[in-house]
Specification:
single chain, mainly alpha
Length: 204
């Protein structure tokens, strides 16, 4: 077998490994997204229990589930978010195909998935902060498109939880762009390192 044949086979093996890492990224992102949803809803439940007892439990068909309300809030988070791990993991993993070696792709993609989780959480918390500012003075006409049950005892808290949830969904989408930027930055850093190493050799 010639050197070119061996090199071609090695490249083909690397390509298969990298493709497998894309699927692995989705597989890892699914439970990560579910766990994120559970943690997220512990925060939003603390903000407004009524957002769940008067809205989310009914929306997800959990009103008859024999669990404490706070535990049911985590179930809602799991049900609402696990599926987002499939497209997010695939998109983040696919961006990792730019890396030359599977080992480097795995390393950077794992960190990029961490970027997704951190970015989405920050986005949700910023949404909560925005909601706190936005609801300092509540005008009912501003929320005509929202589902607000009758006789909510703590309306401001209910609305703030809604702002947090909406922002988190938006953050989940935008976080993919942040993960792509992270992948691109790592790839560019690797390219600069290769050029830097090669330059002195070319001068000798």
């Amino acid at each position: 077998m010639s050197v070119l044949d061996a090199l071609g086979r090695r490249l083909a093996q690397d390509d298969f490994k990298k493709l497998g890492l894309v699927f692995l990224a989705s597989a890892v992102a699914v439970p990560a997204a579910g766990l994120y949803g559970m943690l997220h809803n512990q925060i939003s439940y603390t903000v407004s229990p009524e957002y769940f007892t008067r809205f989310k439990f009914e929306q997800f068909g959990l009103t008859g589930l024999a669990l404490p309300d706070r535990a049911k809030a985590s179930v809602v988070g799991l049900m609402a978010s696990w599926w987002m791990g499939v497209p997010i993991g695939a998109l983040v993993g696919a961006a990792g195909l730019v890396h030359e070696k599977p080992r480097r792709m795995a390393e950077v993609t794992a960190k990029a998935l961490g970027v997704v989780l951190a970015f989405t959480l920050c986005f949700g918390l910023l949404g909560l902060l925005y909601g706190l500012c936005r609801t300092a003075r509540i005008r009912p006409e501003d929320y005509n498109g929202w589902y607000v049950p009758n006789h909510v005892r703590h309306l401001r808290r209910f609305l703030c939880a809604g702002y947090m949830h909406d922002s988190s969904y938006l953050g989940g989408g935008v976080s993919v762009l942040a993960a792509w930027a992270f992948q691109a930055r790592a790839w560019l850093a690797d390219r600069r390192r290769v050029i830097h190493i090669a330059s002195p050799a070319e001068q000798t």
